[in-house]
Amino acid sequence: MMLENDILVKVKDVSKQYAFGKQTLVALNNISLSVSRSEFLALAGPSGSGKSTLLNMIGCIDIPTRGSIYIEGKMIANYNPNQLADLRAKKIGFIFQTFNLLPVLSALENVEYPLRRFAIDKRRRRELAKRYLKLVGMHEFSGHRPNQLSGGQRQRVAIARALVASPSIVLADEPTANLDHKTGESILELMKQINEDIRTTFIFSTHDPQVMEMAGRIVRLNDGELV
Ligand SMILES: Nc1ncnc2c1ncn2[C@@H]1O[C@H](COP(=O)(O)OP(=O)(O)OP(=O)(O)O)[C@@H](O)[C@H]1O
Ligand SMILES: [Mg+2]
User: Mean pLDDT, to the nearest integer, of 198-204?
Assistant: First the structure.
């Protein structure tokens, strides 16, 4: 049984529709899902099934057409854009398929970047960034720009960036899709290690059956519905 207190994310009767010309496209259809603290959860499903849409709702990047999202028990529907940005900065880390590092910043500066909204001094920010770069095994590359790193190395930096503000939850949209199989597996192993060591909750989407096998739980989507 899941205790209500241990539920970090609750998706309740969520639908998302996109207006597309005169048509309405149903990207998510009445989804309900609870994710508890420290889960390592995979979202699986074919292309177009709604995985990214669901991650965007949970990450408060986009809002549902119907239904509610709760993060740590708080319904986010009535948050204003400023409160949402604050929630995202403090509670949620993002990892993307295409790494999305800032090209003009070094690896260390990229990791430090999410801390700019926090009232902590420069030295402490740098220390934290260094600590997380070390955690992902990238401290020797702190001065490298993204284009001076391999795909797997960039994704390690992106993981450090997602973790630097100690979020409760990390959302990863196909984090291994642009990596060869072996590198993808090592990225997943790193995420799993962090999940076990510092108990960060991960929700990641994937097409890769071998990546799914590493999940603690798999949630399957098809045509915007849970199956
Ligand atoms: N901004 C948008 N406007 C209109 N339709 C959209 C928009 N974003 C997504 N969709 C549609 O919603 C559906 C779900 O898309 P979504 O990106 O969530 O799928 P996905 O499971 O992440 O697919 P993939 O595995 O290819 O990344 C698709 O039919 C897509 O075309
Ligand atoms: Mg997607």
Answer: 96
